[in-house]
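Before relying on records like the one below, remember that each one covers exactly one chain. Contacts with other chains, cofactors or solvent are not represented anywhere in the record.
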Amino acid sequence: MHVEFSAYHANVRHSELDVEAGTLGQLLGTLAAQIPSLRDLIAVDRLHASFVANLNGNRFVSDPGTPLDENDCVLILSADAGG
């Protein structure tokens, strides 16, 4: 699946990347393992309360068990972005 980060993540070298994961929790665990600067934003398999994940531009998701498909796009952004 495709993952994009908001500009808020200044410590992330890439603004987007492709990751294999079957659930949101797996995705977040993989991101924390691969991108050390994200470890402060991810508690085990959940995002810190000040960040949100959007699935395919349709809905915000937080349940680590949320299933993900290889064609999905997950956007991780600051919870106060745009407002």
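Residues 24-34 form the longest helix (11 residues).
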